[in-house]
Fold each of these.
Amino acid sequence: MTGILYFSSTGNSLQIAKRVQARFGGSVIYIPNYTGDGSEFQKTFIVTPIYSYGLPTPVFDLLPRLNKDKDVVVIQNYGGMIGGADSLFYEYATQLGLKIKGIYTVKMPENYTLFLVPPKFYTKSILRSSCKRIDKILDKIEKGEFVLPKSKNNKEKTYLKNKSNWHLIGKRFSVNDKCIKCQKCVNICPSANIALENGEIVFKDKCIACLGCYHRCPQKAIVYLEKKSKYRYVNPNVKESEIGKDF
C-alpha cells in the first residue's frame, strides 16, 4: 500500500496529496493524526508546505520516527521562496538515516498573509496552472526520474530561529465581536493551541504558525495584532471540510 502523509492548513498540500493518490493509489493521512512509523507502506510520500525555508513542526517531528528501511518521496510546496528548504529537508532526513528517494518543489498560492496580501489575479493564475505543475512532478516520479537537491542549505540558522519563535505568534491572535464561539478554531488547531475558557476563545503558547485558524474561521473573526484585513485564503480545489482528514 502507498502511504501519502500530508500536512495542510489551507488545502495546498491536500490538493497535491489527492493528486498523488489519484495517480498512485493508497491512503492519504494527515500527519498530526498519524502515530505510525511508515513500515506498513510499500511506498511513502510526504507532502508538506515550506515554512520559513524549512519544515512545519508536525513534519519535523515525524521524520525521526519513520522506518529507515523504506524509500520516501517528498513533495514540498511554497508560496514565496524555497530558500533551500529542499536541501534542509534532505540533510535532516539523511542525518536521521532515512532513505529519501526524491525531493520535488512546486509553487502554490501564498497563505502566509499576515503582512502582505498577494493580488487576487496572481493567486488565481497560480491555482489555474497548479495541476499541470503537480502532474509534471508525478510524471517524473512515475518514470523513475528522481531528483535530489544538489546545493547545501544556507538558511538553516534562520529556519531554526524562526521555528523557535513560532509559539509567540499565537499570543498575537485574538477574536473580534464577530466570533460566535463555534469552536472551529479549537477543533482544527494541530497543536491544541486554542481553547474555549470561561466562554472566551483563548490563544496559548503552542502555536506552530500554520494560520489554519486565521484563514478558516467562518466569521473571519480571528485577527492578528488587531489588524482589520479581510483577506483569507482556502484552496478552492479541495473541500475545506476535508483539510485535516484522512482518505
Amino acid sequence: MELNYYAISDLLESSKQANVPLSSLVLQQQAEQLELSEETVYNKMKENYHVMASSIAPGCDPDLRSTSGLTGGDAYKMKCAVEKKANLTGSFLGGALYRALAVSELNASMGRIVAAPTAGSCGIIPAAILTMQEEKNLSEKDCVMSLFTASAIGMVIANNASLAGAQGGCQAECGSAAAMAAAAIVELSGGTPDMIDSAVAITLKNILGLVCDPVAGLVEIPCIKRNASGVAGAFVGAELALAGIKSAIPADEVIITMKKIGDSMSPTLKETAEGGLAATPTGKKLFSCVFGNSCQKKKML
C-alpha cells in the first residue's frame, strides 16, 4: 500500500476510500515499510504514549527547576488551580494547559520526554491526547492510534515545510505540533477526514508567523508557555472543525504558506536568540544571569 506523505488531501482521500480512520492506514503502511507486524509497530507507539503519560507527574513537581534556574514549577501552579476549581476554563482546558507545561518543564529539566515532533514542542500532543483520554474516558488503544494520525500530519509538514524553529520559526515547531494534535483530537472525537483537514488548517493559520526567539538561547522562555498556547490552539481548531466550520484555505496550502513565511523570516527570529523576546532588556538580563554573575536569578524571576 502506498500512502502519499506529501499532501494531506491525498492521505485523507485514502482514508475516505478505505472507509477507515487515517491511523489504521498509517499503521498498516508503516508495518509494511518497516517489514514488521502491525502489532510490533503499534506496541512501539504505545511505548511512546506511556513515556508521554509518565512525564506528567514529575513535570508537576513543585520543586522542579531547569538547569538554568529560569523555569520550573508552573505546571504545579496550574494543576493546583485546576484541582481547586479556581481556573476559568475548568478541568478540560485547564488540564491540557498543566499537562503541556509539565512535559515542557520536564524537558527543560533534562527529564525523559518524547520529541513530538521536537523537544521544544514536546508538551502539546501529549497534553491534547492525555486530556482527551481523561475527560472523554477514551481507551488507551484509541489514544495510541491517534498518534499515528498525528504523525502522518507531521510527516506531510516535514516534507513540504519544516519542523525546526531554526528553519521556520516557532510556527514550524509549536505550530506543527498543534496541527498534529488537532488532527488527533478530531479523530478521537469521531470526526470526518474533511474535519481533520479543516482542523489542521485552522490551527496552523492561527499560528502563522510565530517567531522562535528563545531567551538566553535556551528552550525555556517563551517556549514552555507556547506549548500551553499550542494545545489551546489545537482544541480551538478541532472544536471549530467538529462544529462543521470549514477552513477557506485547505491544509496543504496553509503548510506551503508556512514555509514561505519561514523562508522570508529574519534569521534573528529563527532560534538565534538575536531578536524578539531574547533581545528585550529583560531577555538580555536573563542571559547575563545564566551565563554570567551580573544578577541573582531568583530576584529576576
Amino acid sequence: MFADRAKIIIKSGKGGDGHVSFRREKYVPNGGPDGGDGGKGGDVIFQVDEGLNTLTDYRHKRKFAARPGEEGGKKKCHGRNGEDLILKVPEGTVIKDAESGKVIADMSGDNRRQVILQGGRGGLGNQHYATSTMQAPKYAQPGGEAIEIEVLLELKVIADVGLVGFPNVGKSTFLSRVTNARPKIANYHFTTLNPNLGVVDLDGAAGFVIADIPGLIEGASVGIGLGHEFLRHIERTKVIIHMVDGASVEGRDPLADILAINKELEAYDPDILKKPQVIAANKMDVCMEGQDEIVNTLREHFEPEGIQVYPISAVSGEGVKELLYHVQELLAQCPSEVTVYEPEFDPALQFFKDEPFTVEVDEEGIYVVEGPKIEKMLGYTNIDSEKGFLFFQRFMKEQGILQQLEDLGIQEGDTVRMYGLMFDYYK
C-alpha cells in the first residue's frame, strides 16, 4: 500500500530550568548569586528530502520528540541547548493539526524547511534576580514547557499533469511509453496502487511531469474503495488527461466513465473541474475498421465545451505525440507556480488558548499582565528574535490582551509589565 498518509505525535523539547547557587570561595564568604541559565529546548523541524517519495518512515513509529535543554549550573554556567529534531518528508507533504484538520505547513514550492514546534526557552538563573533589596535570591525561572500535538501528514503528489481513468484503460502502458517511468503493467483491475510519476520530454517544447493517478471508482469521493487516498494526488495538477477505452474492449461506456469521474472530482473538490482537461481515447489499435462511433460521440459531447478528444494507441504510439503537444499548450496557459496551501493553524497559539490571565493597572500607573497563559507564552517565545517578536505581537492581539489594555485606557508611551518583561506601548 502506498504510504501517503500518516498520523504522528510530535513534541518539542522543554527548556532547562535556571539554577539557584551562590559564589563560595575561600576569600569570598558571602558571594552573590551565580546560578546559570537553562538551555533552550530543541525545536521540531520538518525538512524536504528529495530522495523520499512516500511517508513510510512514519507508518511504524508514532511518537517523535526533540531533546530538552539542560539545567543551568553553578558559576553562571549555561545549560546545553536541547538538540533539534529534524523530520524528513517528501516534497508535497502537507502537515495538518489532527484534531481540526487545519493546515500547519505545506512542504512545497520554496518551503523546504520549517520549524513546526519551538522548544521551550531556557529559564533564567538566580543571578538575574538580584536587586539592592534582595541580594541573595533563592528563586530561578523554570524552563519553558514543551509542546506536544498530534499531526496528520498527507502527501499530495506534485505533478503538472494528472492521468485519470477507470482501471484497465491503459494508463500505465501510456505512462511507460511517454516517460521514463516503469510502472508494473498487468491485465487486471486496480493494478496501480500508488501514483507513478514520469517526465515527458518533447522536441522543441518544454517537458512536464505526469502522474498516473490510480484507478477511480464511483463513490471514491466519499471514501469508497481507496478514493480519498487517490483523489488527494490530483489537487496540485494543472491539467487533467481523461483516459478511456476507446474500443470498449470490456464493454464499458467511455462517455459514462468520464462523466462519473468528473462527478467524483467535483464532489471531492469543485475547483478541480476548473482545470483544463483533454480526453485520450485509448486502444484504437484494436478497433474494427471504421469503428469510430465512440470517438465521434465523445467529440460531440465535449468539444463544444473546449475539451479536445484524441484517439490514440498507447501500444503502437498512434496519436500520442499530438496529444502530448496539446497538453503542453494547455500547460503554457496555466500559472507556473506550484499550488501551496496557506497555514491555518499555529500550534503555539493553540497551546496557550485555555490558560487564564489578568490585565490590571498598579499604583504607579504601570499596566500589569499576568497569569499562567502569559508566563507560559514568555517561557516559549524568544522575544529578541524577529520571528519571536512577531509571534508575541500576534499572541497579544489574538488573545484579546491589546483590547483589554485599550479598554483600561492605555496610551502610547505607557509602560506594560509581563513578569520580567517591560515595554512601552505603541500602536
